[in-house]
Design a protein that fits this description.
heterodimer; A: about 250 residues; mainly alpha; 2 domains; about 75% helix; disordered C terminus; B: about 100 residues
């Protein structure tokens, strides 16, 4: 009954698929919205399908479709895409030490597949370490790509029969998915502080119509979590030296 | 023209994802930076979902007439208690559809 290499890979691929499945299903309304909106805004089928195929983004696709339909300048469209997509710099940085050492093939694939959803499934210390976890990540991220494409194509096909879906509240499906991903990860005070600061600032910055609202709120929230963590560690160190009464000199220095 | 725009957009989204995992980029992360970045998932994901709940048509909406708020509250309770992603999504979506329907009566 030894676990062969092939079997182990199959099991990890399966786990990657199953872990991503709820997220793949949750983006159905959003994908159909993107696909149908493109058709309703007079994109050709090719253009509408190239969006999920090569741009592979959620809100950036949606915003760009409206901008292109309104004849915005190329510079505006590209700048907006850059701003919306800039949060991914943080994901790349966070995973840099793990991914930069990978062979080119894996690095380019995982770089392309590095969405919010894949990043959310990558918080484990050991993610991307070893071939089996790479199989897991590529299947999870790859299945998300395939499903995203599928939902978009469905939207493109149904597009001309569907009403305008932009005000139906389909974005709630995105919100509830991220609630399901974030809330269970709040396991200590620093993460709780991070979440509360991100929540408050993201709303304030958005109401101020600050262009870098998301990234600015996230950066300040991350720093707040980091400071909380340092503060707790310092307090712990002080308590430890007090309790153990190691030596007067150590105690005096605190 | 649209094709060119889409192509350039693809270059941008790929670059923002790939840039910092490129080995030849001269960036070194210390222990402090790594600790800071460990908070990026809760920070970014929260900054995405919270405005969806609280801001409707550019306005802050904190009231029982906001179906997003009602459904998100129950989804958060489900996520905190149940820890199952399917349960949370189910509770959230059902509540959202129901409260949207009731509020439209």
């Amino acid at each position: 009954m030894a676990l062969t290499k092939k079997k182990a890979r199959w099991l990890m691929a399966r786990k990657g698929f199953l872990d991503m499945l709820p997220l793949n299903l949750a983006v159905l309304p959003w994908g159909i919205l993107c696909g149908s909106l493109a058709v309703q805004r007079d994109f050709s089928a090719l253009e509408a399908i190239l969006m999920p195929l090569i741009v592979f983004a959620g809100s950036a696709q949606l915003v760009a479709i409206e901008l292109i339909a309104n004849n915005a300048s190329l510079a505006t469209i590209l700048f907006t895409t850059f701003i919306i997509s800039s949060r991914h710099f943080l994901y790349g940085l966070a995973l840099r030490d793990k991914l930069k050492v990978l062979p080119t093939k894996w690095r380019y694939s995982l770089g392309f597949l590095l969405t919010d959803e894949l990043f959310a499934l990558s918080s484990n210390n050991k993610s991307f370490v070893g071939q089996l976890r790479l199989v897991y990540a590529v299947v999870a991220g790859g299945s998300f790509y395939v499903f995203w494409l599928l939902w978009n194509v469905a939207g493109v096909i149904a597009g001309s029969y569907l009403p305008d879906l932009t005000h139906l509240g389909l974005d709630f499906a995105i919100a509830v998915t991220f609630i399901a991903l974030v809330i269970p990860t709040i396991i200590n005070l620093p993460i709780l502080v991070t979440v509360i600061v991100a929540a408050l600032l993201s709303v304030v910055f958005k109401l101020m119509q600050f262009e870098l609202d998301l990234v600015a709120a996230a950066l300040i929230a991350m720093y707040s979590g980091y400071l909380t963590d340092r503060f707790l560690h310092k307090k712990n160190d002080v308590n430890n030296t007090d309790n153990h009464k190691i030596s007067p000199s150590v105690k005096d220095s605190t | 023209m649209t094709l060119l725009t889409i192509l350039l957009m693809a270059v941008i989204t790929f670059t923002t994802r790939y840039l910092f995992i490129h080995p030849r980029l001269p960036v070194r992360l210390g222990a402090k930076m790594a600790k800071l970045l460990s908070f990026s998932a809760p920070a970014v994901l929260t900054a995405i979902w919270v405005p969806i709940i609280f801001i409707q048509q550019g306005q802050l909406s904190i009231s029982l007439h906001n179906p997003y708020l009602i459904a998100a509250t129950l989804a958060i309770v489900a996520a905190a208690k149940g820890k199952s992603i399917y349960l949370t999504m189910f509770v959230g979506l059902i509540t959202f559809v129901l409260s949207q329907y009731i509020l439209s009566l």
